[in-house]
Specification:
The chain is an alpha+beta fold. The chain contains 2 helices and 9 strands; from the N terminus they run βββββαββββα.
């Protein structure tokens, strides 16, 4: 079972075409689990290029805030640019980016 955003469900891989992945109505083509997750987050959160390693770098494990789950990505093209679950923001370091996400849980 995986979580993406506020949805939880099973991530299925096609029985014969191992590059096709399915999650709750979304279908992506990917070579491995991590690429599939990045492409699903692109599709669900409408963030262009998230699976492009030249543009974004996944940082650490999946992070959950207020029941919403996703990976934290650091921009490779914009200094201090971060995105998590479609939420784009600025932070100087990974620690500051995670502190920003923690502050979101205090806003509710």
């Amino acid at each position: 079972m995986v979580r993406v955003g506020n949805a939880a469900g099973y991530l299925f891989i096609h029985k014969n075409r191992h590059d096709r992945w399915y999650f709750r109505g979304h279908r992506v083509e990917a070579q491995n689990f991590y690429q599939a997750m990045a492409k699903l987050e692109e599709s669900i959160f409408e963030v262009e290029g998230l699976s492009d390693g030249a543009l974004w770098e996944r940082v650490g494990a999946m992070i959950g805030v207020n029941g919403i789950w996703g990976y934290l990505y650091k921009s490779k093209t914009r200094q201090g640019g971060w995105v998590w679950c479609g939420h784009e923001f600025e932070a100087e370091t990974e620690k500051m980016a995670k502190e920003h996400l923690q502050s979101l849980s205090k806003d509710t």
